[in-house]
Structure formats: structure tokens, C-alpha cells
Amino acid sequence: MKTPHTLFVCTACASVWKDGKREGKSGGQDLLEQINELHKNWDLREDFPIQEVECMSACSRSCAVSFVAAGKYTYLFGDLPVNESAAAVLQCASQYYAKPDGLLPWSERPEPLKKGILAKIPPLPTLELVAQK
């Protein structure tokens, strides 16, 4: 059985706010639309779905995306330029998918995802490891 993977994309990133309300379309929504368009023809579209998220608390470092899979490191990337990142996000997601542990060395990541790493979170221990303790 394949490990389920998810690409989270923040839709609140790069928003313009006025009187506590968002005005117009956010940069995150634009990025999501671009990724969705490329995702239609991506070879991993069935194995790596996209999930939009209202906020990932990376507001000062928008736009933000995250790669998540059971048993792998979770990555949160920010500082992604809206109109230059969609293809790089899917390229990096392909790299993440191919790695058994999800580790993405800096030198192998596409340029927009080299500078904007906000978090690399270790995987949860497996039930076997927990039972051994």
C-alpha cells in the first residue's frame, strides 16, 4: 500500500486586509490555482492530492505550502513568489514523494524552495517503536 501524501497550500497568504476583512483574491489563492492547473497533468496527481488550508500561521513569510506523509518528515515552506513557484512546488513534491524518509537536501530542492524553509518536523514514531519503549 502506498503512503498517502498531501500538499497543503495556504489560501490566506499574501492577502490585503482592510477593516479586518480580506479584500480581493490573495496571493495564496493565486498560487493554489496555478498549482491546481499544473496538478491536472502531474504524474503524481492521484498519489499526492492538494488540500487548501485557510491559514498555516506563516503570514509574515507568505506564500506557504507544506508536504506531509505518514512516516516522513513534514516540511513547511514560505517566502514563495506567487508567479514563480507552482512548477517548483510540484517538482519538490515529486522529490519528497520519492524519498522514503521525506528528507529533502537543500542542494536538491528547486530554487524557490531553498530559501524559504520554515520548518522540518520529524515524523511521529511508528507504533512498533512506541511498543518497544
List the helices and strands and how they pair.
Elements: E1 5-10, E2 16-18, E3 21-23, H1 27-39, E4 50-53, E5 65-69, E6 74-77, H2 86-98, H3 112-115, E7 117-121, H4 127-132
Parallel strand pairs: 1-4
Antiparallel strand pairs: 1-5, 2-3, 5-6, 6-7
Describe this structure in words.
The protein is of the alpha+beta class and 133 residues long. It has a single domain (5-132), classed as 3-Layer(aba) Sandwich (Glutaredoxin). The chain is built from 4 helices and 7 strands. It has helices at residues 27-39, 86-98, 112-115, 127-132, and strands spanning 5-10, 16-18, 21-23, 50-53, 65-69, 74-77, 117-121. The strands form 2 sheets. It has a 5-stranded mixed beta sheet with strand order 4-1-5-6-7. The longest helix is centred in the N-terminal third of the chain and has 13 residues, at 27-39. The chain starts with a strand and ends with a helix.
CATH topology: Glutaredoxin
Helix count from the secondary structure assignment: 4
Fraction of residues in H or I helices: 25-40%
Uncertain segments: none
Q: What is the count of β-strands? A: 7
- Secondary-structure-based class equals alpha+beta
Quick structural overview:
The chain is built from four helices and seven strands; from the N terminus they run βββαβββααβα.
Task: Name the features.
4 helices; alpha+beta; five-stranded mixed β-sheet; 7 strands; two-stranded antiparallel ribbon; globular; single chain; 133 residues; Glutaredoxin
